[in-house]
Write a structure and sequence with these properties.
By secondary structure, the protein is α/β, with parallel strands linked by helices. 51% of the residues lie in helices and 11% in strands. The protein folds into three domains: 7-130, Response regulator (Rossmann fold), CATH 3.40.50.2300; 152-315, Rossmann fold (3-Layer(aba) Sandwich); 396-495, no CATH class. The protein is built from 20 helices and twelve strands. Strands 2-1-3-4-5 form a five-stranded parallel sheet, with helices on both faces. A five-stranded parallel sheet has the order 7-8-11-6-12. It has a two-stranded antiparallel ribbon with strand order 9-10. It is extended and about 100 Å long.
């Protein structure tokens, strides 16, 4: 059996057995690491990220059964083969119930081990392919959603199709939440590297002092605690695609090393004494103008030109509002199915508010809003959230625009453009009695309360009356009084 790109973790307290298995599988091109206990296996599991674990059951401290349960909690899809000197039906049942893929009794013949492990790896490969197919279908749905039906996004899609099957570096620009990662994955999926790895690194999420080791890996002894070799993201993305998100946040010293990889196709690990050839396509993304960062000295000019071979700009959602109804329908269907809930479709008033909102968080903000609506099922709450930013009301037909504007509560819950205003209090305070000031203040507070509830109920006056705990007739009378007071104010106003 000769497997490529299989990382095997051997966990056995018997040092002789570990050395034998390590040498045996290393000759078969496995990348092998060993641990002498369950505790040690858990410590190195995340960083080594094995494809396959050979796990002895009888170990002091944490035994193999407990280690199996803990490893499956961390990474359920990892293949685990149990090794034991005792052929115990109870242990076999327990290991199988916890997710072990096979159980091999010691002593064993090497050929038998080869055959059993080949079956486990074939099964895992099949499961991985099914998972990847499902993920590909989901991404295709994401792709079609991100590119909507606007002319601007048609231009973006055309550029992606032209550049995808080349090795050119691409700089993807756009505000946060516009779908830059989706574009990067689309480029990868349309390229000749689609069968290889797509590796993402968020340069803003990893501290600068750790980002170098994350990208390039390290050799034993590179720094305190580095007691073994660790491949980096460039190793993982070899012959595939590396997506560097938030590239503007990369430290200038690390930018120089990235430039070296782009120019020469080689890098060296931390503490390494030789260069390693690598074939990686770089896609980068930023939500900041890199030209300004170059002028201020925060970003290398030569690296900028290396990255900016092809530039793709994703317009914000407010510049392609015609796609919002499509997004609403898609996200509502997707999260209704995910959460097992069936909230009613958004009403006309809510849709209008959604269309008129500025969407500073773009598609991601819209997705989260729909997700909250599916969970909570309260349209009025969604309208209140949108009302914290002053809407445009551009898509209201007249005279509905005036009524809608009147119903819109502001950030503090008061009206942005309210119903006809109550008589002023502050400007006439000197000539009014304390009783009159109190009466007018109460009138204004009552009016604002009515406006807020009318906005929540989309001007359903019967429902508003129930919320306000007054009769429907009383609410109509109050609205009539407000309108009459407004007319009097206008008549008394100087020409």
């Amino acid at each position: 059996m000769a497997e490529q790109n299989v990382r095997m973790l051997i966990v056995d307290d018997d040092a002789t057995m570990s050395r034998y298995l390590s040498a045996y599988f290393s000759r078969r091109n496995f990348e092998v690491n060993t641990a002498g206990s369950g505790e040690e296996a858990l410590r190195m599991f995340r960083s080594f990220d094995p494809t396959l674990v050979l796990l002895d059951i009888a170990m002091p401290g944490m035994d193999g059964i407990e280690a199996l349960e803990r490893l499956k909690q961390i990474k359920p899809e990892v293949a685990v083969v149990m090794l034991s000197g005792q052929n115990s039906p109870e242990q076999i049942f327990k290991a199988s119930r916890l997710g072990a893929d096979d159980y091999i009794s010691k002593p064993f013949e090497p050929k038998e081990l080869d055959i059993r492990l080949a079956k486990v790896l074939d099964k895992q490969k099949l499961l991985t392919e099914v998972s990847q197919l499902r993920e590909q279908m989901r991404r295709q749905s994401d792709f079609s959603m991100t590119f909507g039906n606007s002319p601007k996004m048609e231009e973006v899609k055309l550029t992606i199709e032209q550049v995808a099957d080349t090795n050119a570096t691409v700089l993807i620009r756009g505000e946060s939440g516009t779908g830059k990662e989706v574009v990067a994955r689309m480029i990868h999926s349309f390229s000749g590297r689609r069968e290889r790895s797509f590796v993402k690194v968020n340069c803003a999420a990893i501290p600068n002092e750790l980002l170098e080791s994350e990208l390039f890996g390290y050799e034993p002894g590179a720094f305190t605690g580095a007691n073994r070799q660790k491949p980096g993201k460039f190793d993982q993305a070899n012959q595939g695609t590396l997506f560097l998100d938030e590239i503007s946040e990369m430290h200038p010293a690390l930018q120089a090393k990235l430039l070296h990889v782009l120019q020469d196709g080689e890098f060296s690990r931390l503490g390494g004494k030789r260069d390693i050839a690598v074939d990686v396509r770089i896609l980068a993304a930023t939500n900041k103008p890199l030209e300004q960062a170059v002028q201020s000295g925060q970003f290398r000019e030569d690296l900028f030109y290396r990255l900016n071979v092809v530039s793709i700009h994703i317009p914000p959602l407010r510049e392609r509002r015609e796609e919002i109804p499509l997004f609403l329908e898609y996200f509502l269907r997707r999260y209704s199915e995910y959460y097992g809930k069936q909230p009613p479709p958004f009403g006309d008033y809510a849709k209008t508010r959604i269309m008129d909102y500025t969407w500073p968080g773009n598609i991601r903000e819209l997705e989260n809003l729909v997700k909250r609506y599916v969970i909570v099922g309260n349209e009025a709450q969604i309208i209140r959230e949108l009302s914290t930013h002053k809407p445009i009301f551009s898509s209201y037909p007249q005279p509905l625009a005036a009524a809608a504007a009147a119903a819109a509560p502001g950030a503090d819950g008061s009206a942005v453009n309210s119903l006809p205003a109550a008589p002023a209090v502050d400007g006439e305070a000197e000539s009014l009695s304390l009783l009159e000031i109190g009466r007018r203040a109460a009138m204004k507070a009552e009016q604002e309360a009515i406006e807020r509830v009318l906005a929540q109920t989309r001007w359903n006056r019967r429902q508003a009356a129930k919320i306000l705990k007054i009769s429907y007739k009383a609410l109509l009378n109050k609205l009539k009084a407000i309108e009459q007071q407004s007319r009097l104010s206008k008549e008394q106003r100087p020409a």
